Structure formats: C-alpha cells, structure tokens
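Appendix B, example 12.
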Amino acid sequence: MGELRLRKRGTKWEYSFEGARINGKRQYISKSGFRTKAEAITVGTKAMDEYNRAGVVFSPKDISFSDYLDLWLEQYCKVNCKQATVANYEKKIRLHIKPALGKYKLVALSPLVIQKLIDDLFNNGYSRNTLAVIKGILTGSLSYAVQPLGYIQSNPSIYVKLPSMRAESTIKTRTAPHVVISPEQMSLVLKRFPEGTSSHIPLLIGYKCGLRIGETFALTWDCVDLKNKTLTINKQVQWHEKDKDTGESGFWYFTPPKYNSIRTIEMPSDLTEVLKREKERQDKAVSLYKELYTEYYVDDNNKLNTECQGKKINLVMIRLDGTYIISRNMQYVSIIARQELNLPRFNYHSLRHTHATLLAEKGASPKYVQHRLGHKNIQITMQVYQHLTEKMSSEGAKILETI
C-alpha cells in the first residue's frame, strides 16, 4: 500500500492513504478535522497500520499474553462458550494466569514458565480440578493463537503436565471437605426454616433429591410430575454480572445442567406432598393478587425477565406475590445454620453429598447414584463409596478388637 499523505484543508489537517483496489479502481482512506499536522500523522499512521493488518492493531510479536487473553475471551470464548463458562475463565485468568504469565510476550511463553505456574499452584494447595481447568484455559487459548490466528508456531502448553496423583503438595489441598448432615442436624435446619418459608422447599429438594443449587432454583412446574412423583432436571439458572462496558444490568438466565446431565428422577412421598401444597398455594395467590402478581418469561437468549419478552414460565421457587426466590437465599440459610444452629460446615452442597451418602449406605448401586445426581462419570460417584469403605474398615477394626 502507499504512504501516508497529509494536507491542510482550511484550518484543519487531513490524512489519507491508498487502500486495496476494488473493481480495478483505486480506493483512498482518509479522515480530516485534526488541529495539528502532528496529530494527523499520529492517528493516520495508526489507522494505516491497522488497515494493513486487517483490523489487528498490534504486531503479534509484541502483544503481551495478558492482552492476548483479553482478545481470546472476546473473539472466541464469548462467541463459542456459555456465559457461565466465560465467567469462570475470566475469574481464573484474573486470579491466577495474568499475575503469573500476563507480563510475558505471547511469543516468548515457554513450557518451563507455564509448568512453574501449575507446580506453584499445586504446592499452594489448589485442587487437581482447579489445575486442570487452568491448564485447559492455557491450552485452549494458545491453540487459538496457533490456528486460526497464526501468532505463534506451536502451543507450549501441550508439554505441560499436571502433578502425579501420588504427588503431595507443600500445603494441604484446599478442596473443601465433603460434609454429611445427620438426620438430627437436618431436623434442626428444617425446624428453623419450616414449610411456608422461602427456604423450606429448596432445602428439602437438596436433601431428598441431591440437586445442584442452580438446578433447584431453575425448576419450573412443567418439570414436576406430582402424579408419578418425578422431577425432570433439564436446566440450571446462572447469574450474569453487570457489564461494565455497556452498563447492562445483571440478570438471571437458564442454561443446560452441568455436563448436560438432563435426567428424570423419583421424588419421595413427603416431598411430593409438600410440592402439592405449594402448587395449591401458588394457584390461589394468582387469583388473590391478580394484576399485582409477578409473572416471568424467558426470551430467545434464555434470559429471565418480567417484561413479557419470550415464553411465559411458571417457576417453583417464588414468593406469595410471584417474585422469584433467588439461589443466593441459601447463603443466608448457611449463615444461620453455622452461627445459630452450630453447624459450622453447612452449605447447600453438603445436602447433595448427604443425599448421595445416604443412598450408598442403603445399598443403592453406583450407577443409580450417578444418574440421580448427574455426575459426569462414575469415578466421581465412587468417591462417595470410597468414603464409606474407609468408614466400614474403621468400624470393622473396632469389632476385631472385641473378638
């Protein structure tokens, strides 16, 4: 392409340069209105460089890994990944990857410096699952830099290994311990949050069915079969944070359940009866509140709204006036359980683990438990049975001492 040209038009300066020919005719790209020649040169040089790089405003050999990750998130992740996945990637990149690797040039990244990040995180007690996610982000982002972008020749992360299963970290792994809630403890929680309160049904579903918190608060009445006593789990609800760039407010939206674990499971009779009474209560409330009753819809982007955009839905977790009970309500329940009921490790996930443990103790097959909880693979389910095996071994040792 040609060189940058400058000329003065009245009191202002203009830059121009020749672009690619279209139909054999010369095309010029120009802009005027600059107060000084120096300003026109600066802006014009940048514009011509950007044009010659087909919109890429930097040289790949100079871009930092920090800036490249921003580009990858914007160009690839936000187009191809679910919002929850993008949010998780952004968090891992902000907390772990950028502080350690962001300062390096993209082309200078080596397997050695990436391996050091993984090893340091391991020795600081991060779980293998966290390490696997971070390595996956590094591998995916750098693969995109190889193809289709062509910024680097090869992907240095493919030579990086996760620590061996036999390796022991310097600091104890940060993985939260699995907590089993005893029947007596659960009675205390349900007594504190009895039927009619906004937390009672979510607690029952977590304890009696083992749903993930996002699955519980995504339930709609078309997923509840009161006659056959079943629940169909076909979605989860996620929160999209406020967009700092556009100013768009945060919102709740539906997405497929984790690992696409769509399933139909049985409900116990006591939960079924509670849900029957809840459905009757909600039906009466619609007539009572009339036009003041809040109704919810899901638009084409699966965004939950009250503006009549999209398909109307009937949420299970709502108050008397129809307003949605959000999953953050369980944070309040956990605080009460820990501080008031003396259950220091209680959280919603502990209900899920308790449900799995109770099934295993009663002799349910691992395959049944895997289906019911929507585990990705049987190995995750077998961790529950491993815990029980260790418990039985301990009890067996005590019995041997009495023989």
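The mean pLDDT is 87. The chain has three domains: 5-52, 65-159, 184-327.
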